[in-house]
Write a structure and sequence with these properties.
By secondary structure, the chain is mostly helical. It folds into two domains: 12-105; 129-309, Intergrase catalytic core (hpI Integrase, Chain A). The chain has helices spanning 12-25, 30-51, 61-73, 83-100, 129-138, 142-154, 158-163, 195-207, 233-246, 255-268, 273-280, 286-291, 297-309, and strands at 75-76, 79-80, 169-173, 176-182, 188-193, 218-222, 228-230. The chain has a three-stranded antiparallel β-sheet. A two-stranded antiparallel ribbon has the order 1-2. Strand 3 (169-173) and strand 4 form a beta hairpin. Helix 2 packs across helix 4 and helix 6 packs across helix 10 (255-268). The longest helix has 22 residues, at 30-51. The chain is elongated, with a radius of gyration of 23 Å. 24% of the residues are buried.
Amino acid sequence: MDTREPIPAQPLTSLAQDFVADCRARGLSLRTVDWYDATLARQFLPWCASEGIHEPSDLTPPIVGRFTARLIERQGPRGPLSRATVRSYVRAVRVFLAWAQTPEGGAAAVGASPKLPRPEQRVLEVLTREEIQAMENVAKTERDKLLVRVLADCGLRLGEVLALRAEDLWEPRRSEFALKVRGKGSRDRIVPLAPTLYRRLRRYLTARAADRRDPVFVALRKGADGRYGPLTKSGLEQAVRSLAREAGIEKRVYPHIFRHSFATEWLRRGGNIISLQRILGHSDLTMIQGVYSHLDTSDDYQAAMRVLLGQD
C-alpha cells in the first residue's frame, strides 16, 4: 500500500502520532523518523483498521502473527516484498510497541509484539583491497582518490562522508589521527585515520584554502557564486560508479559497499568486534552479527591463528 489509508480511531492512532513526535524530540535522524512514520501510517495502522484493532491490548499473539504473514505474502508493484523489507517494517512496529509500554508512551498494556521473520541467507558482496586500489588508481583528481580512500578505510556511511568538515580532522594524541564523525541519531564518534591519509587530506584542504567549517568534499566545478559547493549524494554515487566502471569492476559498486568491505576485512583480519561496533557507529552488536554472518569457518580459523600464533 503506497497511499495512506483510513486508520483506526484513537487511542492507537494517537499513540503512534505521539511516538513519532517523541522520536523527533529525541533527535533521531530525519530519515529514521520518516521511516517510522511511513511504516506505521501506511502499513501497520491500516492493517489494524482492517482487523478492527483500536487498543494496544487488542494485539494478541495470533493477531500480530497475521500482520507479519500478510507482509510476507503481499505482492507489491515489483512482486513479493523482500525478506529484508518485511523485517524492517516489523522492526519499526516492535520499536513503536516497546515505546508504548514505557512511561513516555503512557505505559500502555500491549497484548503482543510481532516476531521478526528469519533473514534471508545471502552472501554479502564486498570489494577486495585490490579492487579498491584499482578504483583509486584510475581516479583523475585527488578529490576522487580521497573519496575512495575515506570510504574504504573509515567505514563511513554516505551521509557521514558528505557531512565531514575540515575541522573534523583531528589529532587527539601526538602521532594519532582521527575523524570526528556526526553519525545517525546525533551520535558523534571518533574514527581512526591512517597517518598517510590524514596528511593527504590536510594537503588537499590546504591547496583549496579551505576554512575550518568548509566541507571536506566539494563539487569539481564552481557554482554561480564562484565557489565550490558541497558534494551531493548523487554526485558521490555517480563518482563511485564511474570509477568502478573505469577500473573494470563488473559487480555493482555503490557507497555503502565500502562500509561492508571495511567491516568484512576488519573481521577477517581478526579485529576486535567491539572496536568495530564503535567505529561503525552501531549501538549494539546485533547488526554486525546479522550482516556479516557470510564469514565462514576458515575466516574464524585464520583469526584464531593470528591471535594464538601471532601470525600476520
